[in-house]
Design brief:
This protein is an alpha/beta fold. The protein contains five helices and six strands, in the order αβαβαβαββαβ. The strands form two sheets. It has a four-stranded parallel β-sheet with strand order 3-4-2-5, with helices on both faces. A two-stranded antiparallel sheet has the order 1-6.
Amino acid sequence: SATIPPAIETLIQWAMRNPETIEIGARRSPAETVKHVIYPVSDMQKTDLLLELLKRVNYDSVIIFCRTKHGADRVAHTLQRANHAVAILHSNRTQREREEALDGFRRGKFEVLVATDIAARGLDIANVSHVINYDVPQHPEDYVHRIGRTGRAENTRSEEHTSELQSRVDISYA
């Protein structure tokens, strides 16, 4: 998924005659069945907003994505202190801990899975009603993979789908 920065694109147009662009594979976009909402808040307000969203939103299961392993641990411990059943999934967890987290989340033992992008690609997790991006993904494709957890199999649930709780001043939720 290499992209050409605008400055390089300008240079290419100036230096070459009739340059050709070859794209392999189509850029993926979010499923149309996913609803996106943004809550602009400061970094210091993100945790309070997250806790409030989990109180107010009618969800079945939630995956919360964090940028770092330490951030995922911090968010998970905060949610556990607020009496949420939470599993943690990131690369510092042992294989056994990862399997237990996924199995428990799938079976409903845990209502919330806090993860880094390790869970965004390639994992089969059905019936995820909400995804919260607590931290902004580094790449647009990561966003599509993250929220794809809710849009699988053309899931057209009537409830809201959380799609992004952004890490900067603009937080999103769907």
